[in-house]
Amino acid sequence: MPRTRNHSSAKKAGARFERQVADYLAAHVDDRIDRRAKTGAQDRGDITGLRHLGQRLIVECKDTTAWKPATWLAEAETERGNDDATAALVVAKRRGLSAPGDQLVMLTLADLVALLTAARDHIDPTPETNDA
Fold first, then answer.
1. Which domains does the chain have, with CATH numbers?
2. Residue 94 pLDDT more than 90?
3. What letters, b where the CB count within 10 A reaches 16 and e where it falls short, cover 60-74?
4. Is the pLDDT of residue 66 over 70?
5. pLDDT at 33 over 60
6. Which element (helix H / strand E) includes 58?
7. Which residues pair with 23 in a beta bridge?
8. What Pfam families does the entry give (predicted)?
């Protein structure tokens, strides 16, 4: 029978997932990458020390069965702004796959452009279009 999560077990699972992601990135990208201390209302993401082309990136980690990509990306964007980072990434746990390298990474197209160009100032915040 599957175990259900309570608040405490969910927090522990989230902290464990953040540690796995930070350790994986530190081992494969830069050994200065680590979990970030929680900062409350001015949260700046779960992982610190990740850079691309000299620009800071924030990483928001999600270990949950309830997938809410739009909510997660909005949270990551707020944290990107709080950190004055170039781009925001969401790393989401895939059920049934425990290896950190098997987890998913989400980002907006604007964040992909910022990541690839190492600049955010040239991104035009165009209004949403109606796909109907």
1. 7-36+44-117 (3.40.1350)
2. yes
3. bbbbeeeeeeeebbe
4. yes
5. yes
6. strand 55-62
7. none
8. PDDEXK_15
